[in-house]
Amino acid sequence: MALAATKSNDRLYQDLARSLLVELSSGRYPVGSRLPAERDLAVRYEVSRPTVREAIIALEVQGLVEVRIGSGAYVRRLPGEEDRPGFNVTAFELTEARLLFEGEAAALAATQVTDADVAEIELLVQRIAEENQDPNGTESADREFHLAIARATRNVAVFNAIERLWDLRASSPEAALLHEKARHANVKPVVEEHSAVVEALRARDPNAARAAMRAHLSAVLEGLLFATEERALAEARKATQARRDRYARATA
Q1: In the list 11, 110, 217, 234, which could disulfide-bond 99, CB 3.0-4.6 Å?
Q2: Going from the N-terminus, what domains does the chain have, and what CATH number goes with each?
Q3: Which residues contact 229 (CB under 8 A, 6 or more apart)?
Q4: Please, are residues 74 and 68 in contact by the beta-carbon 8 Å criterion?
């Protein structure tokens, strides 16, 4: 049962979420029952597994399903007439945007950054390492690291755009939920990836800075996939090759 393509065909997960909402409303899956496995839904609706994940997260945000790590999605309640998926920016969309914008911002920053900027950014890497050691730690240093690089571009428009992307990470329920799942799965900012960006900035090398930032954000995507994948990360890579190809084309 393939989902009909929308005019833009860019948010297919919304169509799937609506289809699942209809199935829940029909009583096909009673409260407490388990939804079909991710791979089965992907085959039935002829969509990718990341599309299934995004659709399930949209329903989870509405309180309709509960996702249990390693077990699947279970129906918490049946939808009423007033229930409609409240679509926001997903964590995958947000990471794609960050990869595009922050990669170029890092390149620009490498041409404008001062020694003082580099010292500040390097200190933020140390704070990231400290937060990683705290079981109850936040990722505030990670945010400040990326905003410091945006500020180092000396371009207010660039800074405002990247600050807005980071604000969306917290304000979009879908994005916030998936990042929380990643944190609970012990997926944390990787110090070495951030250090590679710092070294490229220190060298005033725009190409290296761009490459280091893109590599870092590609790894962030891997972490999000890991946080929502029931099987090993290797299978997630295979199942999401089409999405990765899209990222590669967009950032070539």
Answers
A1: 217
A2: 3-75 (1.10.10.10), 91-250 (1.20.120.530)
A3: 235, 236
A4: yes
Q: Assess contact for 89 and 211: CB atoms under 8 A.
A: no
Q: Phi/psi class of residue 9: alpha, beta or left (left: φ > 0; alpha: ψ in -120 to 50)?
A: left
Which region holds residue 87: left if phi is over 0, alpha if psi is between -120 and 50, else beta? Answer: beta
Quick one: pLDDT at residue 109? Answer: 98
Q: What is the pLDDT of residue 51?
A: 86
pTM, to two decimals? 0.66
Cβ 170 vs Cβ 54: under 8 Å: no
Could you please report the per-residue DSSP string of 53-106?
HHHHHHHHHTTSEEEETTTEEEE-----TT--------HHHHHHHHHHHHHHHH
List the one residue out of 3, 1, 85, 71 whose CA is nearest residue 37. Answer: 71
CB 206 within 8 Å of CB 107: yes
